[in-house]
Amino acid sequence: MLPLTSRSGERWRAVLAGVLVWLAIGAHARAEDGHALWLRYAEARPLDMEDTGIGLGEVTAPGATPTQRAARDELRRGLAGLLGSAPRFREGPGGAGGLVLGTPDSSPWIAPMRRELDGLGEEGFLLRETRVDGRKTLLVAARRDIGVLYGVFHLLRLMQTGVELDGLEVREVPQVKLRVLDHWDNLDGYVERGYAGRSLWDWHTLPDWRDPRYTDYARANASLGINGSVLNNVNAEALSLSHAYLRKAAALADVFRPYGIRVYLGARFSAPIELGGLATADPLDPGVQRWWRDKADEIYALIPDFGGFLVKANSEGQPGPQDYARTHAEGANLLADALAAHGGVVMWRAFVYAPDVAEDRARQAYDEFAGLDGALRDNVLVQVKNGPIDFQPREPFHPLFGAMPRTPLMMEFQVTKEYLGFATHLVYLGPLYEEALRSDTHAQGAGSTVAKVVDGSLDGHALSGIAGVANIGDDRTWSGSHFDQANWYAFGRLAWNPRQSARDIAADWVAMTFSPDPGVVAPIVDMMMGSREAAVDYMTPLGLHHLMARGHHYGPGPWVDGGPRADWTSVYYHRADARGIGFDRSTRGSDAVSQYAPEVARTFDDIEQVPEALLLWFHHVPWDHPMRSGRPLWDEMVHRYTRGVRYVDAMQATWETLRGRIDGPRHAHVAAFLAIQRAEAQWWRDASVAYFQSINGLPLPAGELPPPHPLAYYEALQFPHAPGDGR
Ligand code: BDP
Questions:
Q1: How many C-beta neighbours within 10 Å does residue 209 have?
Q2: From start to end of 68-133, where are the E strands?
Q3: Is 435 a residue of the active site?
Q4: Any idea where the Alpha glucuronidase N-terminal domain is (predicted)?
């Protein structure tokens, strides 16, 4: 090769530099920060819409109501991005072909379909390719405007993920009625268990300033079909029910309304005392009853479609009906009666445990609630966490599912990763949600899945609900990391239809968020799908639980002992001693197994049959217990800790292969977070191994590296400013 000297060399060097810049721009096509979520409408697989012959650039859509305008706006945004030019909107029914949106009332093109659309309910929709006057036409039809908006989002998703539109026929009806995000946001902007900055709600400037982000929040939720938002923390301040704060909530409700989202509020049970100046909050006191009725009237005057209240009562220090020797049913019914005339609901949480530490905290919600079946008003849902303890990396399904057939049970998932590494660990929660929903309660024989309890089909409830504790804050990524957006996304999709597959949902999310290129989608989906199991492995393998550090829950703390309550310690849960480890919840122990239907109880009770993934949840097991792998329990535990760390290595390697195929800023951000996760997974593994080894005195299996520090080092680590701590 000729040396590049002289003037021609200069020129070549300039050309080369230009090419490199061009390549760099090409590779990092758009500098992205994740703020657009899965609604980027950017990187379509070359969509040759001309080929389909639909002419998507021509849109006939009504624009009279706010929801109709929201549908148009979304289409404008989406099609401009995906097709390269904004569509042309036609007001009236002149002409045919292209895209036709509407309801029987809003569109003469859709009016003849009235009978057919009746079967779609209030929120369902239909996408259909058909011919009108000989021209190919794509219909987005529904009974109500909101269904049309959902249909538009669905269509845009199909386009973003590269689905063939030719011959399209889609009917979608949400399987669950209330699909709600619970924000644990305090009025001062702090988010309990929040790892994505401060609250999105700027209570100080509300109701006058309506930040455009509120609209984007509503768009993102509507794209998934989420139709409710509890604005404030379950550890609620009475102040959120004051007139001034109700006006602020009303402003948010106004912004959300066109997107089909109702607002709800966390209600503090003692509000009649704190706000109303009453001497009591006793649910049987007529003055208290009047106060709640008046409060409901006041709320509905400001927010005519207010959804209702979410209540945490007599749990972790919150006031409740038991303060007056009344039951949870009496408490819930008090609020339900106040809301009933307005069509509101009460979501009464079953996350309760007695102030005096019980033999087994896992039993308590069931013990308190199962007997209340049938005692609750029709507009009460009991909101139950997916497992009996508290959003652990893995729990068996909550025994209340299937045990209260006369009561709608609302699923409560945690989207924010309080117990799963906060925002820096890449842990896709789709598989956790899927596992819980597919669990078989056997309440009415085999196939009585948790999903069927939750969607109301098992017991014939019209009222049904799923809630997710939100992971949203004012961080540019909304969720604190790029991959945590996938958990918001998966929650919403599963709330719409709890039978969908976590893998399919992940594939859609990746295609929309990063690229529809199969060479990008496949490796990322694979990496996501194993990520939850990896976190279980490096944190709490084989059914271990509640072993994180005290208070903030950041990092390992299997040694946590003492303090105000035994059931806030780790030793209460793992019960490790020289002979073995695990919580005996079998019929020989706390007998929590008997809260499940007999078929399930038998399996969990039998150390030979219980799934190994739940072994130490239900049994106290000798360290040398032979596992299915052939290893003794202790060796298996260490093997799994290490396997979890190795999985993070593999995610890092996969991510590295995607350099250049993902825009630079997001690639770098994820890579940096994976490095944090790698270090913290190792920390979890080492600290856990050091601790349990100090108890059992056993050697490490061959080939396993000893922790680099003595146990005292791990025990001494302090993180006074770890984010999200309850307060
Ligand atoms: C626990 C959280 C705590 C919540 C509580 C709840 O640590 O901050 O207040 O759940 O759900 O997981 O009420």
A1: 10
A2: 88-90, 98-102, 125-132
A3: no
A4: 37-155
Annotated catalytic residue, options 58, 282, 390, 508: 390
| pLDDT of 160 strictly over 70 | yes
| Structural contact between residues 361 and 326, judged by C-beta atoms closer than 8 angstroms | no
CA 315 – ligand 1 centroid, Å = 10
Q: What is the DSSP pairing of strand 125-132 with strand 169-172?
A: antiparallel
Q: In the sheet that 88-90 helps form, which strands lie side by side, from edge to edge?
A: 88-90, 58-60, 98-102, 135-141, 125-132, 169-172
Three-class DSSP category at 224: coil
Split at pLDDT 50, 70, 90, the class of 9 is very low
Bridge pairing between strands 135-141 and 169-172 = unpaired
In this structure, what token pair is assigned to residue 209?
Answer: 């300033």
Beta bridge partners of 58: 88
- To which residue do tokens 């209460």 refer? 572
In ligand 1, the atom with minimum distance to the C-alpha of 235 is 9
Going from the C-alpha of 293 to that of each of 257, 301, 614, the distances in angstroms are 24, 12, 46
CA distance 400 to 349: 12
Task: Write down the H helix ranges in 93-190.
Answer: 114-118, 145-160
Q: What's the mean pLDDT in 610-631? A: 98
User: At how many degrees (to 10) do helices 212-222 and 243-256 cross?
Assistant: 60
**Residue 475 CB neighbours (<10 A):** 21
The more confident residue out of 149 and 11 is 149
- What's the CA gap between 398 and 387, in Å, rounded? 4
Task: State pLDDT tens for residues 524-577.
Answer: 999 999 999 999 999 999 999 999 999 999 999 999 999 999 999 999 999 999
Q: 650-666 burial, b for 16+ CB within 10 Å, e for fewer?
A: ebbeebeebeeebbbeb
Indicate the pTM of the whole model.
0.95
Alpha-carbon distance of 268 to 309, in angstroms, equals 9
3-state helix, strand, coil in the chain (%, to 5): 40, 10, 45
418 is catalytic: yes
- Among candidates 344, 333, 347, which has minimal Cα distance to 282? 333
Cα separation, 678 vs 629, in Å, equals: 26
Residue 173, class by beta-carbon neighbours within 10 Å (0-12 exposed, 13-18 middle, 19+ buried)? middle
Q: From the centroid of its chain, how far is CA 347?
A: 17
- CA–CA dist 503, 319 (Å, integer): 41
Asked if the model's pLDDT at residue 15 lies above 80, the reply is no
Q: Which of 334, 348, 341, 333 is nearest to 289 (CA)?
A: 334
- Using DSSP's 3-state secondary structure scheme, residue 385 falls into strand
**Domains of the chain and CATH, by start:** 50-172 (3.30.379.10), 178-513 (3.20.20.80), 537-583+620-716 (3.90.1330.10)
Given 254, 316, 599, 715, which residue is catalytic? 316
For residue 431, the CA-to-ligand 1 centroid distance in Å is 22
* Length of the chain in terms of residues written: 727
459, 453 contact by CB (below 8 A): yes
Neighbour count for residue 719 (Cβ, 10 Å): 12
The single residue of 58, 172, 395, 418 carrying the catalytic annotation is 418
In this predicted structure, the answer to whether residue 96 has a pLDDT above a threshold of 80 is no
Q: 364 and 353 in contact (C-beta within 8 Å)?
A: yes
Cα 321 to middle of ligand 1, angstroms = 20
Active site residue 390: yes
Number of H helices, E strands in the chain: 22, 16
Rounded (10°) angle between helices 286-302 and 243-256: 40
